[in-house]
Amino acid sequence: MNYTAITNVLGKLLIITGTSLLAPIVCSLIYGEDDLNALIATAVLTLACGIPLWRSFRGHHDLNIRDGFFIAFFGWILISAVSALPFVFHGSIPSFTDAFLR
Predict the structure, then answer these.
(1) Which range marks the domain in which residue 63 is found?
(2) How much is the pLDDT for 59?
(3) CA distance from start to end of the chain
(4) Smallest Cα–Cα separation from 83: which of 25, 29, 43?
(5) How many domains is the chain partitioned into structurally?
(6) How far apart are CA 36 and CA 101, in angstroms?
(7) What pLDDT score does 86 carry?
(8) pLDDT band at 58 (very low <50, low <70, confident <90, very high)
(9) Which of 102, 91, 101, 17 is nearest to 54 (CA)?
(10) DSSP 14-47
(11) 102 pLDDT above the threshold of 90
């Protein structure tokens, strides 16, 4: 398995997820919701993890089918875990396990 290529792709996935949190942040600003801090904290944390992974392991890497399966499997788990963070930070779902499973 090509771990540098896998780490690079997972870093890109975190960057995409962090930037996609801009839409809920804008909605929270427009409608005056109280979850703005939780969304910003999640976006910053996600980008702070994704950008170093992407920058440290960038370059031309070849992926094989096994690497693709691992990225798909671990990517779903990673994005689910990141997506649970705003609920935990906001306090609407205090348990990370409950937020992850919903």
Answers:
(1) 3-101
(2) 78
(3) 32
(4) 43
(5) 1
(6) 22
(7) 96
(8) confident
(9) 17
(10) HHHHHHHTHHHHHHHHHHT-S-HHHHHHHHHHHH
(11) no
